[in-house]
Write a structure and sequence with these properties.
There is one protein chain. α2 runs antiparallel to α12 and α3 runs antiparallel to α4. The chain folds into 4 domains: about 100 residues, no CATH class; about 160 residues, von Willebrand factor, type A domain (Rossmann fold), CATH 3.40.50; about 190 residues, 3-Layer(aba) Sandwich (Rossmann fold), CATH 3.40.50.880; about 70 residues. The strands form 9 sheets. The chain has a 9-stranded mixed β-sheet with strand order 17-16-18-19-26-25-24-21-22, covered by helices on one side. It is built from 12 helices and 35 strands. About 20% of the residues lie in helices and about 30% in strands. The protein is α/β, with parallel strands linked by helices and about 650 residues long.
């Protein structure tokens, strides 16, 4: 057994006082003369023995009272409760969830720093310390008391939360035996399981910073609602979450582009729930595609800004291949719109394969024999096949990888959409009841096998369908688009159908943002030149990424350093490939924390882990063990001292 305050044991010298009082009596002896002392001698011996016993019992009780009282103030601890330690490590969780309020006007991080500062100041001068936070590198040596205080003054919030296992790994190089204080709000989404490291003789003290009555509203995700084809008015669906335990009223949601307010609304959201709101905006007001959503939410505001980049729906390159003597002029009118398309038309005898390689959508219009040289592009380019009156069946079967039958409908048959809920039709029609009864066609080919039918005739035979291959599509019509076979080019559905095919069932609609925590970012582009330098930059940062370019897809490796959220541009040489937005992972925005009872359970599973109540740490020092058994020894000694003072009173009264 040892003592937290061994200097108090000097008080045992006070035991000499009652002993001296007992040994020396200063009362004067008075002689009384009796005529006969024969019976008095016998009475003297009897009462003298009883008096001596009483004095001894009173003295013993008095001494034991003083002994246990002094031991109680010295605070005894069993030796097997303490292990020798090299120093004391204070790990301060400076993740942004610690910005929640502990009390009015005081946030969690400040509470942790206040405790740490007080704890270090009360330690002996020669105590060894180390201070670690989430952004600290691995600790290799101890600091002096003053060095620890200096390091403590530099602690700021970090946007890189660490799990408990990562924290243990970071501290493992410091010592095999140490006192480890971990001050945190113990956010479940980031800390994970709490386990003592194997092979380490650490005394781990969990100090919970109680961030109570938390309210945090944040943007969980945002996505574009597919608008009608190329209409100016756009819509963004924003998923808001309240991860706190307080209902929120009137949260302001603002859509901003280059400091200009584009759209705003007020939202009510209950505790531990989510709400989907829709922001509408005019695309012409978005400056350089840069957007952000800002929330007016306090006190936790680190996740109040959510960056986005307006996706471009413009197809980089449309290639129209046709016979020398003929092409569908309606196709040229559709894709000749320079606002949205870069359109090129080639005779089948002079195909420029360099242009094909850079294309996003290739239209084979009236081609009798599909060249085998185009087969290699099917895995990363979308195609539309408009058959000629006479086809080479073998070349069509090879290109489609499906059975092809040549047919000839005798009359034009009415057409209808097979399934209006097909993703292809999202954004084409603004109603779920569409009548295209005036649309008719006579087919000349029939495609069998596995395919997706979009438009069919009343006999459920495909007129417009697609075949998916490696996330790309081969679209086909079952007849030429001349007036001899169909009235499609004069029908209201022709333009949106052609536009949607060029969009590859919305595949070309870029995501609004990328998650910074992901290992790679995948970007579709045909403009990449590997001989030129690739840069990712914004107004304050330039990043030269590791990358791979494979068949029209650029894979960027996320940077090893803390990339800040915001809008960025990808530059290849002097060419802008894409604008993009990065956001932090929303994991840290989930405010659910471990309760004291849950943390205490971790302590029951490991003898090296204890939960400490921060409200009871005012008089603690680096030598303290903080275990309940230490408190029990103190209480036991105090109870014994009270027992013996009571015994002394009883001996005096009744003996």
């Amino acid at each position: 057994m040892t003592f937290l305050y061994p200097s108090v044991l000097w008080g045992l010298l006070l035991l000499l006082i009652p002993i001296l009082i007992h040994l020396f009596s200063f009362r004067k002896v008075i002689k009384v003369i009796f005529p006969s002392i024969l019976f008095m001698e016998e009475l003297k011996n009897e009462t003298g023995n009883r008096t001596n016993l009483k004095h001894l019992l009173v003295l013993g009780s008095r001494l034991l009272f003083m002994v246990f009282l002094i031991l109680a103030f010295a605070q005894p601890i069993l030796k097997d409760q303490l292990s020798p330690v090299e120093g004391t490590l204070l790990y301060i969780d400076n993740s942004r969830s610690m910005s929640g309020e502990v009390t009015a006007g005081q946030i969690g991080l400040n509470k942790a720093l206040e405790f740490s500062d007080d704890f270090i100041n009360r330690a002996p001068t020669d105590t060894k310390f180390q201070i670690l936070t989430n952004q600290s590198s691995m600790a290799l040596s101890w600091l002096s008391k003053q060095g620890a205080l200096d390091k403590l003054s530099d602690v700021r919030f970090s946007n890189d939360p660490k799990s408990f296992s990562q924290i243990m790994k970071k501290a493992s190089a410091l010592s095999q035996s140490m006192l480890f204080f971990y001050l945190s709000d113990f956010q479940k989404s980031t800390i994970g399981a709490i386990e003592a490291p194997k092979g380490m003789d650490w005394q781990i003290k969990l100090i919970k910073i109680a961030v109570d009555n938390v309210s945090n509203v944040y943007v969980d995700t945002a996505y574009m609602e597919v608008a009608q084809i190329h209409e100016v008015q756009k819509y963004i669906n924003v998923v808001l979450k309240n991860s706190g335990n307080i209902d929120r009223k009137g949260i302001q949601v603002k859509l901003i582009s280059e400091n200009q307010l584009i759209s705003t609304l007020l939202v009510d959201i209950n505790a531990e729930s989510e709400s989907i709101v829709t922001l509408s905006f005019d695309e012409s007001y978005i400056k350089e595609g840069k957007m952000k959503i800002e929330l007016v939410d306090y006190p936790i505001n680190f996740d109040n800004t959510f960056y986005m980049s307006l996706p471009s729906t413009k197809i980089s390159k449309i290639i129209h291949v046709h016979p020398k003597e003929y092409f569908t002029k309606a196709v040229e009118k559709v894709y000749g719109n320079k606002t949205y398309f870069e359109y090129h038309r080639f005779n089948e005898d002079v195909i420029d394969y360099r242009e094909i390689q850079l294309a996003d959508f290739v239209i084979l219009d009236g081609i009798e024999n599909i060249p085998q040289s185009l087969d290699g592009y099917k895995d990363y380019i979308d195609f539309l096949i408009i058959p000629s009156k006479i086809i080479d069946k073998a070349s069509y079967q090879r290109f489609f990888s499906r059975s092809i039958y040549q047919i000839r409908d005798s009359i034009a048959i009415g057409l209808k959409i097979k399934d209006l809920n097909d993703p292809f039709f999202v954004g084409i029609f603004n109603t779920k009841e569409v009548d295209i009864g005036l649309l008719k066609a006579k087919r000349i080919i029939e495609v069998n096998g596995r395919l997706n039918v979009l438009v069919q005739n009343k006999f459920e035979k495909a007129f417009l369908g697609n075949i998916k291959r490696n996330n790309h599509y081969i679209y086909f019509f079952s007849s030429p688009l001349t007036s001899e076979f169909t009235n499609l080019t004069n029908h209201a559905t022709f333009l949106p159908l052609m536009y949607k095919m060029s969009l590859g069932v919305n595949r070309h609609i870029q995501p609004l943002y990328y998650d910074r925590s992901k290992e790679y970012v995948s970007i579709a582009t045909r403009d990449f030149d590997s001989s030129k330098k690739l840069r990712v930059l914004n107004n304050v940062l330039e990043w030269l990424p590791n990358y791979q370019y494979i068949e029209g897809r650029l894979l960027l490796e996320s940077p090893p350093f803390n990339l800040q959220s915001g809008n960025y541009e990808i530059i290849n040489g002097d060419i802008l490939i894409k604008r993009m937005a990065f956001n932090e992972s929303r994991v840290e925005s989930e405010m659910e924390v471990y309760t004291p009872s849950e943390l205490a359970e971790f302590g029951t599973k490991s003898k090296n882990i204890d939960l400490i109540n921060i409200e009871k740490t005012k008089n603690l020092s680096t030598n303290e063990d903080f275990r309940d058994s230490a408190d029990d020894l103190f209480k036991f000694a105090l109870i014994l001292s009270l027992f013996f003072i009571l015994s002394e009173s009883l001996f005096i009264r009744f003996l």
